[in-house]
# Entry
Amino acid sequence: MTTATQFEGIYHGLSTDVGKMRFAPAGLGWMSTSNPENKLTIPAGDIKSSQWLRVARNYQLRLFLNAKKDEDDEGRRMTFDGFAREDHEKIIGLMKQHYDVGVETKEISVKGWNWGTTDFEGRDLTFLVSNKTLFEVPLTTVSNSNIAGKTEVSLEFATVTAQTPEEKKKAKFVDELLELRFYVPGTVVKEVNSDDSDK
Amino acid sequence: GHGGKEVKGWKRFQSYKGEGGLPREAETLRIWVDRKNQTVILPINGFAVPFHINTIKNAVKNDEGDYTQLRIIFQTPGQLAGKKEDTPFEDPEATFIRSASYRSTDGHRFDTLCSQINDLKKEVNKREQQKKEMAD
# Structure
């Protein structure tokens, strides 16, 4: 008899390497299907909290882990994509049963609107439409930010240019995000309000 | 109140009713034009981010060495081009996404995507124009 529950077709992070994930009392494990060398385990005691949200590859289980001594307070975060909508209840049960951790459900916007509000949550910039998440970008992936004029803010993302023929071939299958530009009409007003001495 | 329907000629539109509406193709983490739902889906940090064609102004393609760049430009207030009434403009205090730029070594694919987006935009504009003419 085994007390572990396994899910197939799960991705770790943004990698295209698909694998399986096991939930056991001692902790979580993920292993790539094509490359068994590519695997990881998370001890039960490391798991601090979790979230469930819709992403491109179906549903994501996001784990927040306790910070190690040499890390900053934010701790680590791990994401696993590829869960089915129907797995939700099962995941809630497993997380509670094995790790005594709740699963917060994040609502995602699929309205198709390009206006909303920005918010900083931990290390992420979140864009919200009608209070639902449209997307999040980790600030660690932002290589440069510019303010053009008084109402435009741009975020440039770190990229690695393909050098070898193999890398170039791989790059063919990736649509790499370079930059996002935002129109922020509120910034001018804020600047004026906070700087009365210039008047 | 009941004022939510139209704001200064701005017609409410929506890509999908719920998460279940996102097409399977979004799973590839690549740009996808969902013609049926008049929506362009952009991959941003693993999210499938839908943008209704009404929020898009146009797409521009640029070749640079091994890479091709695709920039999707959105409708935002404070732009010179475009009629005011065509701008999706519900909340003037909101932050707008103005553009998103991608690159790929598959120039042919980005070529196709660029045309698909601009063609869809033209099609929708044409239909809107016809509707207006019918109404007059």
User: Anything to note?
Assistant: Chain B has one domain: 6-135. Confidence is low (pLDDT under 50) at residues 1-8 of chain B.
